[in-house]
């Protein structure tokens, strides 16, 4: 009997001395076929897929799982409005594991609130919303034999109906034309033929958008770009892969779309509107929808049979669910002696998509890189693929993505805090406005926490528990910082939509992360912007989640991601140079120019002792001292900190405002000291006295410094990346394209080269090497 089986039997209150386990009973499911919980474990792992852990870690894992499950007892209840099953269905599944068998299984089978409208064509089962699909997969494939037979049959039929054709047609068919499987190529070509429009037909699409008088700005942008596209596109349908790729590149050209729009816009708002209007598989009830893309996600607007959003986490939930239901239908059809070629085509195409996704992750990372808000959701979806895919190559692709995501998370997770920088940051300074961990920090505590007490129960964790997946133990050791500090890592992060070929040419953000004794600091050379956090510092605090410190570039902005004009950062080890630009005040609608006021906000935990040493302000953060030296600005302490644009102040944070003295460039130098590098605060202050700041060219957007350790750095604002010098040598950003690697002279803990497909993790006496064939997506490891 396996340890995991033993654990679940113990959880169910069953003795291990040969006692029989009673079948679970509920008012809806009393048939003799109801199986005991030990039969409800996931499918046995395929040979070679297990990543062994030490015995002690397996015992700890079981105890952590027990805590997560027990925390969900009494949490049954599913809200089926729109995508609100996102967490409620998963919580209910955990409640079933906790012993709430009758109420939980009944809640899982409650009629969906939109069963007779949106979901009527899929037997009243919600297979539309991506967040819902995450839990529906678990419900059908893991809890299936606990469902009422008639409900399970409804789900089976729904999955078969839904996956009989591609529920989310897209321009990505172009990327399948070079697949090694001729059936995939034929399927993609057939769908592209349906989505092709001649130049005159494209102009007609533009005319139709103009006639739809609903005031939608995106329809106007779409119409304007389609007219330009029609004049430049091929006059006849492409006949080779190169022609189709050129057609796709024109449709998705962000620079051209922005030029026509006359303002920065997300390119997907235009090319996904094209996908909506030429959709070969429109929704059975709503057709192609009313549009436009970018308003709401429901099928009456988007017109797809599956939620069309393409963020990494939602793509994974959708694509994995389509694959699994298509594969299930093919297996059932084959078993009945009635093969289903349509489902087999969909299965093969989605196998291609998932393997291509794995190859992209292993080439340059993912677009939602390290997002505290979404990385847990993404991991949960890939756990489902690892759990339930029968095709060994597909299951290996699932493990490939999980191993890479967990490595990424291990670089960020630290004692239930989440380091940075990161994409898609909603301003989670100190974890969404509360001190306990949340989001990805909570999710990955199940894998990484060294004690049961540190585990933060979270609904998505049910997918990890039921999958049998565990990250390589070297990755766990990486998360626990089982490497000798100090060390420095470089990373290069991709553009958001990594599946677009033009976004695979080069990374767009270049990161430096330093790990000290009790602290870690990460920054991006071009700073924050959009929804990307470009500066984050974590410092250990005894008995608490590590302190989180971020920089907001402008007044009244998001405490984690707001960008100052001209923002750029140079970092080496424990030292940082942060440069921003205070803009000239603008005239208001009344024609009057407001008085000049501009401030940069450095958010810190409330109540930390601080003192001044010359031009430096030193904050005592517990495990380390943080020293800040402003230039071109004046500090003001004890200011309220808001999050995500909200007016309410975060109760446990306060702001150090650096108020610009005049329009123009300004900023600060920052250094971190700890008792291992400087025995006392006084010794740290004495070392700081040796540092210098060179502001001779500040008006031209350049500043330099010599740190207390003797490092020389300089940074000058430039686009698309700032100019940075270390010890007089200018950084060549293209030489730093590797996704992860150690800085020169620093011990190597994690390495993944740009488009190399080979990951090495070394930590705590453990070594892991994984390889993905970037042409096929096939994964091997040792």
Keywords summarizing the entry:
782 residues, alpha+beta, six-stranded antiparallel sheet, globular, disordered N terminus
Describe this structure in words.
By secondary structure, the chain is of the alpha+beta class. It contains 22 helices and 26 strands. A nine-stranded antiparallel β-sheet has the order 14-15-10-7-6-5-4-3-22, with no helix packed on it. The longest helix is centred in the middle third of the chain and has 24 residues. It starts with a helix and ends with a strand. The N terminus is likely disordered.
Concise synopsis of the structure shown:
This protein is an alpha+beta fold. The model is unreliable at 1-47 (pLDDT under 50).
Any chance you could write out the topology, listing elements then pairs?
Layout: H1 3-11, H2 55-70, H3 85-97, H4 101-108, H5 130-141, H6 149-162, H7 182-195, H8 199-211, H9 217-232, H10 241-251, H11 254-261, H12 268-277, H13 299-302, H14 312-335, H15 341-364, H16 375-388, H17 392-412, E1 413-414, E2 417-418, H18 439-443, H19 445-448, H20 461-467, H21 473-479, E3 487-493, E4 509-515, E5 519-524, E6 535-541, E7 544-552, E8 568-572, E9 575-582, E10 599-605, E11 610-613, E12 616-620, E13 625-631, E14 633-639, E15 653-660, E16 664-673, H22 681-688, E17 692-694, E18 702-706, E19 712-716, E20 723-726, E21 729-730, E22 740-742, E23 750-752, E24 758-763, E25 766-772, E26 779-781
Antiparallel strand pairs: 1-2, 3-4, 3-22, 4-5, 5-6, 6-7, 7-10, 8-9, 9-16, 10-15, 11-12, 12-13, 13-16, 14-15, 17-18, 18-19, 19-20, 20-21, 23-24, 24-25, 25-26
């Amino acid at each position: 009997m396996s340890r995991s089986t033993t654990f679940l039997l113990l959880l169910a209150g069953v003795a291990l001395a040969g006692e029989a386990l009673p079948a679970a009973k509920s008012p809806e499911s009393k048939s003799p076929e109801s199986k005991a919980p030990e039969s409800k474990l996931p499918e046995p792992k395929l040979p070679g897929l297990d990543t062994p852990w030490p015995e002690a870690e397996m015992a700890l894992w079981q105890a952590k799982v027990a805590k997560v499950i027990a925390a969900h007892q009494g949490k049954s209840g599913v809200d089926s409005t729109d995508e609100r099953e996102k967490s409620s269905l998963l919580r209910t599944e955990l409640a079933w594991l906790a012993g709430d068998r009758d109420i939980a299984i009944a809640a899982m089978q409650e009629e969906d609130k939109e069963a007779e409208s949106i979901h009527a064509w899929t037997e009243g089962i919600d297979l539309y919303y991506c967040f819902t699909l995450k839990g529906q997969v678990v419900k059908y494939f893991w809890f299936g034999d606990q469902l009422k037979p008639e409900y399970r049959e409804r789900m089976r039929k729904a999955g078969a109906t839904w996956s009989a054709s591609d529920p989310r047609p897209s321009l990505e068919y172009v990327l399948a034309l070079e697949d090694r499987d001729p059936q995939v190529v034929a399927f993609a070509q057939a769908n592209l033929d349906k989505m092709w429009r001649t130049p005159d037909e494209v102009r007609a699409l533009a005319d139709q958008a103009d006639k739809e008088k609903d005031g939608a700005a995106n329809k106007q942008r779409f119409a304007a770009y389609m007219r330009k596209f029609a004049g430049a596109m091929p006059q006849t349908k492409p006949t080779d892969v190169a022609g189709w790729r050129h057609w796709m590149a024109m449709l998705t050209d962000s620079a051209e779309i922005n030029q026509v729009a006359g303002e920065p816009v997300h390119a997907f708002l235009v090319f996904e509107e094209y996908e909506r209007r030429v959709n070969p598989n429109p929704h059975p009830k709503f057709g192609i929808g009313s549009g436009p893309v970018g308003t709401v996600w429901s099928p009456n607007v988007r017109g797809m049979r599956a939620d069309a959003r393409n963020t990494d986490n939602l793509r994974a939930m959708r694509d994995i669910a389509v694959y699994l239901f298509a594969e299930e239908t093919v297996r059932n059809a084959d078993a009945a002696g009635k093969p289903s070629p349509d489902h087999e085509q969909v299965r093969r195409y989605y196998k291609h998509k998932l393997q291509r996704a794995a190859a992209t992750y292993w080439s340059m990372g993912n677009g939602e890189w390290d997002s505290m808000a979404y990385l847990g959701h993404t991991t949960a979806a890939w756990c489902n693929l690892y759990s339930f895919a029968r095709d060994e190559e597909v299951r290996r692709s699932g493990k490939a993505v999980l191993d890479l995501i967990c490595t990424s998370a291990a670089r960020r997770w630290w004692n239930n805090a989440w380091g940075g920088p990161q994409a898609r940051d909603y301003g989670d300074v100190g974890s969404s406005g509360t001190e306990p961990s949340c989001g990805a920090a909570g999710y990955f505590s199940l894998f990484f926490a060294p004690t049961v007490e540190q585990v933060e129960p979270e609904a998505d964790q049910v997918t990890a528990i039921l999958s049998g997946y565990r990250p390589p133990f070297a990755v766990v050791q990486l998360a626990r910082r089982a490497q000798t500090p100090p060390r420095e890592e470089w990373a290069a992060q991709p553009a958001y939509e990594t599946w677009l070929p033009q976004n695979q040419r080069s990374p767009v953000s270049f990161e430096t992360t330093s790990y000290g004794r009790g602290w870690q600091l990460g920054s991006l050379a071009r700073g924050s912007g959009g929804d990307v956090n470009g500066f984050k510092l974590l410092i250990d605090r005894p008995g608490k989640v590590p302190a989180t410190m971020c920089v907001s570039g402008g007044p009244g902005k998001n405490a984690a991601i707001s960008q100052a004009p001209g923002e750029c950062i140079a970092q080496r080890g424990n030292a940082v140079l942060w440069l921003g630009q205070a803009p000239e005040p603008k005239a208001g609608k009344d024609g009057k120019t407001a008085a000049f006021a501009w401030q940069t906000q450095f958010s810190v935990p409330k109540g930390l002792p601080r003192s001044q040493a010359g031009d430096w302000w030193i904050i005592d953060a517990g495990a380390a001292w943080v020293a800040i030296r402003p230039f071109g600005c004046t500090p003001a302490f004890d200011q309220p900190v808001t999050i995500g644009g909200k007016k309410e102040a975060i109760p446990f944070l306060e702001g150090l405002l650096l108020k610009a003295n005049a329009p123009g460039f300004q900023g600060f130098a920052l250094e971190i000291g700890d008792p291992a590098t400087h025995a006392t605060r006084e010794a740290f202050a004495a070392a700081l006295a040796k540092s210098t700041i060179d502001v001779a060219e500040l008006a031209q957007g350049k500043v330099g410094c010599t740190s207390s350790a003797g490092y020389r750095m300089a940074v000058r604002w430039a686009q698309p990346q700032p100019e940075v010098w270390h010890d007089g040598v200018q950084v060549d950003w293209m030489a730093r394209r590797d996704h992860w690697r150690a800085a020169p002279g620093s011990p190597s803990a994690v390495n993944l080269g740009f488009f190399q497909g080979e990951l090495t993790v070394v930590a705590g006496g453990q070594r892991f090497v994984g390889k993905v064939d970037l042409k096929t997506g096939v994964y091997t490891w040792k």
